[in-house]
Structures are given as C-alpha cells and as structure tokens.
Write a structure and sequence with these properties.
Helix content: 10-25%
Structural class: mainly beta
CATH topology of the largest domain: Jelly Rolls
Shape: globular
Strand content: 35-45%
Number of strands: 14
Radius of gyration: 26 Å
Distance between the termini: 66 Å
CATH architecture of the largest domain: Sandwich
Largest sheet: 12 strands, mixed
Number of domains: 2
C-alpha cells in the first residue's frame, strides 16, 4: 500500500513539474510576442493600433474609413480621428480624392476634392483655405505628413504650398510650419511615389507633445504668388480661380 502511494506521489510530482515548465514557457512566449509588437517598429496599418509610448504608426488615407458621407468626426483608427473644415471654418465633408494621380484625403465642395486655397470665393475676397484637422487621444511626436497633388512648379517658382499648426491637449498652439516640395525630406526633385504629380513626405518640427494638427493650403509660393486663371478656371464648384490645392496621403507618428 505504501509502495502504491509512493508511486502515485512520484507520478503526481512529475506531472506538476511538467505543467509548471510548460506554463513558464507559455508566459515567456507571450511576453516576447508582446515585446515584439511594441519595440518601436512601424505599424503600417489602418487597423486598430497600439498607443504605447515609443510605438511608431503609419496611417494611409483610405475611403474605407469614411462614414456618414464624410460629415462629422471620422475615425481613422482607434485613438486617431479627423474632420474637414470649409473655407468659412464650418464643419465640412471629408472625402477620399481620386480625381487625379495622387489619391488622399481632401475636402468636398470647393475647387477640387482636395484642400483648396482661395483669394476669391463665391464672389467675395476671403484669402482662406479649407482644412483637415487630426486628433490624437494620446500625445504623439516625430510627425511626418505625406501630401499629394502638390505641384513643385505650379503657379510659382515654389509651387503649390500649405501650412500646418500643432496644438497641445488644452487646444493651445505649440508649433506651426509650412508644406511644400521645398520642405520634403527627399528634396523637391524626388517624389515618394513614382509617376506621381507631387507626393512628398514632410517632417514637422515640434518639440512638445502633439494632441491635434490642422492642415491647410496657402496661396501659391507660401502666399507670395497670385492666383491663376481668375474668373476663367473651369471646375465643378463654379469658383473660377486656380491656387494651391493638395491632399493628405498619409501620416506617420510616434506615441509619446
């Protein structure tokens, strides 16, 4: 009887040892896998992302994220949303612009389905732009915007241009800068997409944590140029002026 009990105890001890070993291996594997997901490597996806500090994320513009005809706040991914603003600052309609070679987010209803700047709009002098705003639930840094349909020589020697403004969690402006082929990380002669009209990655110089961004166009040549074909430019909106316009192709950032 004692021998049987000893044998049973020995078998149970071996089983417990094997179970503990297997459990330790499983936990270690889970930790390694979790580490691989947050090891500061880019997440190139429009699916839900990880917002752990140090995680780098790339988001591409896509028609698939649009809802409610692009009106109101649109969720790009979990924790990142965006919306469009009209020339007068009212809430606009975010669209996925595919009219020309470079596809990206724009604003519906003005000259094209892009982010358009106007001196004259619907018969009035406005000197204003449509805008796209991007909101981050968690603060980010090291932001790179990729813009499309930005002509390096269109309308002015500095071409089509825009500007960006960054805000903190209280909505206060913390930084601003310009967008143009001259500001590309690759140089004005190199486009990030072969055969594109003007696709350029532009790094934003921001020292503080960013909670939101506003992207808009300026007049040709950083506002130094004049609009072209005034009162004769043919487009669906009926606003007869050609000026800077571009779209938002992608954004890359790192969670802070």
């Amino acid at each position: 009887m004692k021998m049987k009990l000893s044998l049973i105890g020995l078998v149970m001890g071996l089983c417990l040892t094997l179970f503990a070993s297997c459990s330790e291996d499983a936990v270690e594997t889970d930790i390694q896998n979790e580490g691989e997901n947050t090891a500061n490597e880019p997440v190139d996806s429009n699916d839900d992302t990880v917002s752990d500090p140090g995680t780098t994320v790339t988001l591409n513009a896509s028609a698939s994220i649009l809802s409610n005809n692009g009106e109101g706040l649109q969720q790009w991914v979990d924790g990142v949303s965006l919306r469009a603003l009209n020339i007068d600052g009212s809430e606009g309609r975010l669209v996925f612009d595919t009219e020309f070679r470079d596809h990206g987010f724009g604003v519906g209803g003005a000259r094209w389905q892009q982010i358009d700047y106007y001196v004259m709009y619907q018969g009035q002098e406005v000197n204003a732009s449509e805008k796209i705003e991007i909101f981050f639930d968690s603060p980010v840094q090291n932001v790179v915007l990729t813009v499309g349909m930005m002509g390096a020589n269109e309308g002015h020697q500095d071409g089509e241009t825009g500007k960006w403004t960054a805000f903190n969690g209280n909505g206060a402006k913390i930084a601003e800068g310009v967008l143009g082929a001259n500001d590309s990380m690759l140089g004005r002669e190199v486009k990030s997409v072969e055969n594109s009209y003007g696709t350029y990655p532009i790094a934003l110089s921001i020292g503080d944590p960013v909670h939101s961004l506003q992207i808009e166009a300026t007049g040709f040549g950083y506002g130094e140029g004049e609009p072209k074909n005034v009162n004769s430019y043919d487009n669906d909106s009926g606003n007869k002026e050609n000026n800077s316009d571009f779209n938002l192709v992608a954004i890359r950032f790192e969670y802070r």
